[in-house]
Write a structure and sequence with these properties.
mainly alpha
Length: 563
């Protein structure tokens, strides 16, 4: 079904007739992200949503949402011959009001979980220098071995790996809201334990706690956003979560730059996450449970149907505001309940072994290969050790290196925005091929700097910028976008979960191994190794990754996976 959507924000967000428009189409029962924003995978930076969670949450229909001051108006016109078959009624519209709070708050507070993930990446860059410095550490145990330093940098990633596994087991039981509150609590605990760590062992415990919070947040945030925001802009908001992650990285660089010359500054770098996580916890506590999760539990037979319908109605009223009529709210609850029931009646999620059979195996080869190469081409090393690389490149003062890291963070933010706006126009394959080529060139330049261009420190800075820019228009957003598109419906949940485990596992491994490998091989050879892997990644993309731009999920399965 093709749909044209116009969204108008009232004053003070828009004046007069100012409006922005989007064009969307549904893939199965999942909407495409609006073309004016593009598509990204961020969120996918650990989006692992099972098909049974997502597929029932969206239902086709035509809606016209009329609003007055301080309300959001979303008007959708159904077009084409498919309207009759989907019940759109040839342009008939049902009306519902969406308050600005229903859009902003259920997005911002879960998205803070992504921001805190990005913050950890940025802050760790400076903290690993501070904690290892004889003059800046402020401890008697600053003489960390390369392996210990690798654990400091990758500890949160090992925790995230465990958190991802934990989320898969308990997420449906806890619900999205409680999962995110738990995540915020772990963020707070991990930040405080790390900030006040009296020794290395406690420091690592704090890093692991923080990492478990990352794993839960990266699962719960996209689910809560998807289940509570207006369906017409659901894809837009999930895409914007990638920018929150990147902004978190930039914030981590800023805090690191401010505290890098302070004795014990690493404590402040890690500890600054606690107040941010407290805001997330308070915000999530103030929000209602996801109405769709309440209905999902009822359909699963885990809760009484009538009781959960009443709770879902109350939650929806809190999200939309008191002015929404009881009839509109009741109709929406009934429609969502029917959609969830239909999804459970018609589809069964495959076992984990089915991911390695037939079309699912082809999909996992593509998706799993992309997220694996995303990490083993050096991405976590470049991000987590950006300040260290810059110091070695000639910015001797830690503060100088940290300031350059801020510029790299800004550049990363801008390139992410470019990818968000252009991926649907340019396509997946061109951006991947161009980006991976840029990554290869950047890694070769870094290796050349350490071998023959050591008198030109700005070569290293330029290479880092090229690496970051190339990554952000290729592996960064597109790997997870492809993962979300490529798996058949029957194994999509299991496939995405395995892709997430591959991502976090390889991320933690590369981050941990970088420091010891650098000590054994030297920086020039380690970047040559990453460059060689990047060449393999480029060959993999050219030979195996299809173009999915403009294809529905059904077309991808029929035309790409089964041919």
């Amino acid at each position: 079904m093709a749909m044209a959507t116009s969204v108008c924000l009232p004053s003070p967000l828009a004046t007069g007739a100012t409006a922005f428009r989007a064009s969307t189409s549904y893939r199965g029962c999942l909407p495409r992200r609006p073309r004016w924003l593009g598509r990204t995978a961020a969120g996918m930076d650990a989006l692992h949503v099972s098909s049974r969670d997502t597929e029932p949450l969206l239902h086709p229909g035509a809606a016209a949402v009329t609003a007055t001051h301080r309300r959001l108006r979303v008007r959708t016109h159904a077009q084409g011959a498919e309207d009759a078959s989907t019940g759109a009624g040839g342009g008939a519209a049902a009306e519902a009001d969406y308050s600005l709070a229903a859009i902003i708050l259920p997005f911002v507070f879960p998205a803070l979980g992504g921001l805190l993930f990005g913050y950890d990446i940025g802050a760790t860059s400076g903290a690993t220098i501070s904690v290892h410095s004889a003059t800046l550490s402020g401890t008697t145990w600053y003489g960390l071995s390369p392996v210990q330093l690798g654990l400091v940098a990758s500890g949160s990633l090992y925790g995230a790996l465990g958190g991802s596994i934990l989320a898969y087991r308990i997420a449906d039981f806890l619900g999205r809201r409680i999962e995110l509150i738990t995540s915020a609590s772990l963020y707070i605990s991990g930040a405080l334990v790390t900030g006040f760590a009296p020794n290395f062992v406690v420091l690592i415990i704090g890093r692991l706690l923080y990492g478990v919070g990352i794993g839960l947040a990266m699962h719960g945030a996209p689910l809560y956003i998807a289940e509570t925001c207006p369906p017409q802009i659901r894809g837009t908001l999930i895409s914007l979560k990638e920018l929150f992650i990147v902004f978190g990285i930039l914030l981590g660089y800023l805090v690191g730059s401010h505290e890098i010359d302070v004795v014990g500054g690493w404590r402040y770098m890690f500890g600054f996450g606690a107040p941010l996580a407290a805001i997330m916890a308070i915000g999530m506590w103030s929000l209602p449970p996801s109405p769709r999760w309440l209905l999902l539990r009822a359909v699963q037979g885990k809760s009484p149907l009538e009781d959960n319908k009443k709770k879902a109605l109350q939650a929806l009223r809190r999200l939309k505001g008191r002015s929404a009529s009881d009839k509109v709210l009741t109709d929406e609850i009934d429609n969502n309940l029917s959609s969830i029931r239909a999804a459970y009646a018609d589809q069964a999620e495959g076992s984990i072994f089915q991911v390695f059979e037939g079309a699912s195996l082809k999909a996992f080869t593509i998706g799993g290969g992309l997220v694996l190469f995303q990490q083993i081409t050096g991405q976590p090393s470049v991000l987590y050790y950006a300040t260290s690389i810059l110091q070695t490149a000639g910015f001797a003062a830690a503060s100088d290196a940290a300031k350059v890291s801020i510029l790299i963070g800004l550049f990363k933010f801008l390139m992410t925005g470019f990818a968000v706006f252009k991926v649907d126009d340019l396509g997946r394959r061109p951006l991947l091929i161009g980006g991976v080529s840029g990554i290869t060139i950047a890694l070769l330049l870094l290796a050349a700097y350490y071998k023959i261009l050591s008198g030109y420190p700005y070569v290293a800075v330029g290479a880092l910028l090229l690496y970051v820019g190339s990554y952000q228009v290729s592996f960064g957003p597109i790997s997870w976008l492809m993962v979300s598109e490529i798996f058949p419906l029957r194994t999509r949940g299991r496939g995405i979960s395995l892709a997430v485990l591959t991502n976090f596992g390889s991320n933690a491994l590369v981050t941990f191994a970088f420091s010891p490998l650098q000590g054994y091989l030297g920086p020039a050879n380690i970047f040559l190794l990453f460059a060689a892997i990047s060449v393999l990644a480029l060959v993999f993309v050219i030979l195996n990754v299809p173009e999915t731009k403009g294809l529905s999920l059904e077309d991808i399965e029929a035309k790409i996976l089964k041919k």
